[in-house]
Write a structure and sequence with these properties.
Distance between the termini: 34 Å
Largest sheet: 6 strands, mixed
CATH superfamily of the largest domain: Metalloenzyme, LuxS/M16 peptidase-like
Strand content: 15-25%
Number of domains: 2
Radius of gyration: 23 Å
Number of helices: 16
CATH class of the largest domain: Alpha Beta
CATH architecture of the largest domain: 2-Layer Sandwich
Order of helices and strands: HEEEEEHHEEHHHHHEHEEHHEEHHHHHE
Number of strands: 13
CATH topology of the largest domain: Cytochrome Bc1 Complex, Chain A, domain 1
Oligomer: single chain
Structural class: alpha+beta
């Protein structure tokens, strides 16, 4: 990433009361209590070169959020060149034919435009937040780097050091990053999700311009991109600008993408990594489902019951009652391909893992044998639905949600149905998905412990 990208591709569930869900004023539209529906105006169309364009008017402030996302991520790399998608994201800020890297940053700053970018397993996104009067300027700049990226060897040489430091900061010197990398590399053996988005250091230091150019030419195409413009603009004039700048870009056939299907584990696996840390951490992980899968909504709620927030079962037991863990979390990570369901905890310094692991296993088994009460089910629904609403409060968040749904599903309006999906989940659904996916015999346990 060029800077720290703090928005996560799966949301952190926060506590709230359902009453607030319907009392909260939201600038982006309205929520119907009867139908639990989110509403705001959106228009979608496609240029002749295949570029998908999504427009969402919001005149509440004179600002525009401008998102350009590409359907390419680390899963499109080869095992011999991991992290290429992320490296190319960095190089997209180093200049193109019309705007050099220095010009790019200077012009944005002079015009009050903020920007950032991110790379995930499945997609890469670039975005700017700008005064509405600067729309044509940002179009010209984005088209320049979509079509004519410079990719100079001298720029790559300097950026290799930047990405290497980012790797050290995010993974090598980060207990959470180390544990995640160990877990994903154990849970996935043949699917590209097995390597980290940032890549391995040996590959980062070996990137060459010609290989990155090949990656760029293959995936940075209008027919592999989604453009989202949200905020204070006139639809008619904006469409003309989009046609003027983007229709000149040629499309090309995209490579066939046949991602390997990760087989189920035949037995549980336990991996331990000794590192320079003060406390022991553990993650229990299970193969999950892909984004939009019918069971993903129930699994989100299972994660909320187990370990999302201070009132969750594991947080109560491990952090507050037993006072043996510093923190607990659970999450259902969904991607374009099946992801992972995880339960994580970090112990207080000097304490072992045995008691916390026993309690966690017991709580997971309880999810498979006992129905969650209606009161607890409603509580976690409140949390998840409030998080969904709060994730659409700003123009930028709205644009991001439109982009991610269009990229993953080819249909942005899936986001308008999320509240209904969560609200329709039953206690029986939680029991069923827990039994189906949280199978101890297929569990990966990844442990990070202090060096002796």
């Amino acid at each position: 990433m060029k800077k720290i990208f703090q928005k996560k591709i799966y949301k952190i569930i926060r506590s709230s009361m359902l009453a607030h869900l319907f009392l909260l004023p939201v600038l982006f539209g309205s929520i119907s209590q009867a139908g639990l529906k989110i509403h705001f105006p959106v228009e979608k169309y496609q240029l002749s070169n295949g570029l998908t364009v999504i427009l969402s008017e919001d005149h509440s402030v004179p600002m525009i959020s401008y998102h350009t996302w590409y359907r390419v991520g680390s899963r499109d790399e080869s095992p011999e060149m991991t992290g290429a998608a992320h490296m190319l994201e960095h190089m997209m800020f180093k200049g193109a034919k019309k705007y050099s890297g220095k010009d790019f940053d200077r012009i944005l700053q002079e015009n009050g435009i903020t920007n950032n970018a991110f790379t995930s397993f499945d997609y890469t996104g670039f975005y700017e937040n700008l005064p509405s009067s600067k729309l044509e300027l940002i179009m010209d700049m984005e088209v320049d780097r979509m079509r004519s990226l410079a990719l100079r060897p001298e720029d790559l040489k300097s950026e290799l050091q930047v990405v290497g430091e980012e790797r050290r900061w995010r993974v090598d010197n980060n207990p959470g990053g180390l544990l995640r990398e160990l877990m994903m590399g154990t849970l996935f053996k043949i699917h590209p999700y097995r390597w980290p988005t940032i890549g391995f250091m040996k590959h980062i230091q070996a990137y060459k311009v010609d290989k990155l150019r090949e990656f760029y030419d293959k995936y940075y195409l209008p027919n592999n991109a989604v453009l989202v413009i949200a905020g204070d603009f006139d639809p008619s004039s904006t469409k003309k600008l989009v046609e003027k700048y983007y229709s000149q870009l040629p499309s090309r056939p995209l490579p066939k993408r046949n991602y390997p299907v990760e087989p189920d584990l035949k037995a549980s696996v336990r991996k331990t990594l000794a590192w320079d840390v003060q406390s022991r951490s553990e993650v229990m992980a299970f193969k999950g489902v892909e984004s939009g899968h019918a069971d993903s909504f129930a699994l989100d709620l299972v994660a909320a019951v187990l370990g999302s927030g201070v009132s969750s079962r594991l947080s109560k037991k491990l952090v507050y009652e037993k006072q043996i863990a510093a923190n607990v979390n659970a999450g259902n990570m969904t991607n374009a391909n099946p992801g992972a369901f995880m339960v994580m905890f970090t112990m207080k310094p000097g304490l072992g893992l045995a008691e916390a692991e026993k309690i966690t296993r017991s709580e997971i088994e309880k999810m498979k044998t006992e129905l969650v009460s209606e009161k607890e089910l409603q509580k976690v629904k409140n949390q998840v639905m409030m998080d969904t609403v709060e994730g659409l409060n700003t123009i930028d968040e709205k644009a991001q949600s439109l982009a991610i749904n269009e990229i993953l599903f080819g249909n942005f309006d899936r986001l308008f149905k999320d509240l209904e999906k969560y609200n329709s989940v039953t206690a029986q659904d939680l029991l069923r998905v827990s039994q189906k996916y949280l199978v101890m015999e297929k569990m990966v346990t990844a442990i990070l412990e202090p060096k002796k």
